[in-house]
Amino acid sequence: MKINTILLFFVVAGFSLSAQNKSTKVADKLVERYEYVQAVQEYLPLVETGKSDGYVQKQLGDCYYNMHNTVAAEKWYSQAVKTNQAAETYYRYAQVLKSNGKYAEANVQMKAFATMVPNDQRTKEFIANPDYLTELINKEKLFEVNKISLNSNRSDFGAVLYGDVLYFASARNESNKTYGWNDEPFLDIYQSAYNENKKYSEPIPVTELNSTFHEGPLTMTKDGNTIYFSSESLKDKLFEKDSAKKLKFGQVNLYKANKENGKWGVITPLPFNSKSFSTGNPSIDKESKTLYFASNMPGSKGGTDIWKVAVNADGTFGTPENMGDTINTFGDENFPYITEDNILYFSSNGLAGFGGLDVFSVDLNQNGAPNNIGKPVNTEKDDFAFTFNKEKNIGYLSSNRAGGDDIYSIAPVCKGQVLTVVQNAKTEALIPNSKVVILDENGAVLDTQYSNEKGEVLYDLECQKAYAIEVYKDGFVTGKFPIAKLTGGKVLINAVVAPIEVIVTETEIVLKPIYFENDKSTITKWGAAELDKLVYIMSQNKNLIIYAKSHTDFRGTNQYNLKLSDRRAKSTVQYIISKGIDASRISGKGFGESDPKVNCKKCSEEEHTLNRRSEFMIVK
Question: Is the predicted pLDDT of residue 111 greater than 50, yes or no?
């Protein structure tokens, strides 16, 4: 339903009457009455009997366009443009193509539109930023989006959470009279209880607010005692009459109600309502001093604009002010929502987006430019009515991405911070200008930074994902530090790396002993720390070739010890290769007990340990 059902004053693009004839008379009158569902049923037989032409095809495209059936609209517009059409038809065709994800084809139609009306503001916007889509697609993901359980098979939208109660507008009441625009029942305001388990109770209508006309959405003051909501002006007999068409042209207007004895009391219209323009979709700020709303009142830039009005302490109102052309465009801006931080969210089909209505934000504290908040909030379809409850850390979005208007919950993407402090293991001194690499749980490199003068690097990362930090610094052993799944906040990683303290002779690289546990060939944590020093030296000296010799103590038979030492040599070689050293530069062999460090008959445990060792000979 969106704009169509909440703004009953419509700006319908003009079309040539030259193709109207007796066969289209009934359908054309239905279009004039905005009864698009019935109009389609009258136009389609003309197609089936061969009485259609470019006019009928364009009319069908317009009907489906207004019904938000972009697939059917595309079908009929594609046929209509084979004949001469007004510029607006090419523009609408481009919009439905974009909504269907056909951006290249949409650009073709926009070029045709631009040729016909080169001075139109929409033409200027199109020419000024032809590659905007790539930028939008690459935007950082800000929210998780999920469809909630209380949606019906009719339109549901405009959800906003106050305390533990969710309010929204819905056409689910089948006993309501049907609206000819889209053949759905008129809208009512509903409420549903929201609990700590993120479950919703069965929605119930807010009976004291609902009438036989459209109602919703609403906004509520922070104290919970006053609401403002959208409803039809027909309830106040505020309308314009067209006797020839037998129509009453009503508007969606704004109304106010105060809580009395737990119920919403007397409903009063706001003083700037009019039978000539619409005012709807309100949002009140946290201090209850400024009311934001959508309207097409005089002074609007395009279709509907975002406006604001001061709410005085005595309950009176100031003069409505247009939010200006930074926010408002030639198209439609609607569904404003103001946060406690003075961030304004709204939807627009005039600003650069994926298609249809997209959600934008603008920081009113800084008078910044609107920012498209990207996928998955925005899609090729209509995305609108963004609201957010800071206390519960949950928001809501309305969208027709699944075919009809539905309500989706939104949750900010959880972010955590990892502060890495690089430090010398021996002196405890901070190490600046260290290369600090962040890896995902699969070992893929996500980013690389260098530590500042305090040895610090700060990374912003997503929650519920495991990461690892690797630290590289000349003269130090490369360090790798795992990070458990983040849950938000800041995690401190003390990246303590050891200086490389080795003796390099003409024939050998002398490390601290690479000890193995008794009767085992697995590289120990302490052995790995020493081998990392060799890895570093080999990485810095590309021509260095090493031969690893592994030895055992005297315990066990000669044959067994020879096999054990060979396994240890191979384990050592594989560790070096696993760190990125080419296999052609490292080889090894086991020598068993044949070349002891200490030649003893009744060896002490310390002497046995010294004999269980690896040595690294320089081959080249």
Answer: yes
Q: Is 580 left (phi over 0), alpha (psi -120 to 50) or beta?
A: left
Residue 554 gets which letter from DSSP? S
How many whole angstroms separate alpha carbon 187 and alpha carbon 176? Answer: 8
Helices (H), 34-147: 36-48, 54-66, 70-80, 87-99, 103-116, 121-128, 132-137
Q: Is the pLDDT of residue 11 over 70?
A: no
Q: Is the pLDDT of residue 514 over 50?
A: yes
| Torsion of Cα atoms, 70 then 73 then 78 then 80, to 10° | -160
Q: What is the spatial distance between Cα 271 and Cα 4, in angstroms, rounded to a whole number?
A: 23
Which backbone phi and psi does 121 adopt, to 5 degrees? -60, -35
- Percent of the chain past pLDDT 70, that is, above it, reads 92
**DSSP character at residue 413:** P
Phi (first) and psi of residue 36, to 5 degrees:
-70, -35
How many angstroms separate the most distant Cα atoms in the chain?
120
Query: Which residues neighbour 15 within 8 Å (Cβ) at sequence distance 6 or greater?
Result: 55, 58, 59, 62, 86, 89
What's the CA gap between 352 and 357, in Å, rounded? 10
Question: Based on C-alpha coordinates, what's the Rg of the chain?
Answer: 36
Residue type, 528: A
**Please, where are the H alpha helices in 337-418?**
none
* Spatial separation of the C-alpha atoms in residues 201 and 275, rounded to whole Å: 38
- Alpha-carbon distance of 451 to 421, in angstroms, equals 8
Nearest of 242, 274, 275, 247 to residue 180 by alpha carbon: 247
pLDDT digits (tens, 9 = 90+) for 114-131: 999 998 878 887 888 777
**596-620 residue pLDDT tens:** 888 888 888 888 878 877 788 888 8
- Tracing tokens 């935007």 back to the chain, one arrives at 139
Q: How far, in Å, CA of 398 to CA of 294, rounded?
A: 16
DSSP state of 314: T
Alpha carbon distance 347, 50 (integer Å)? 41
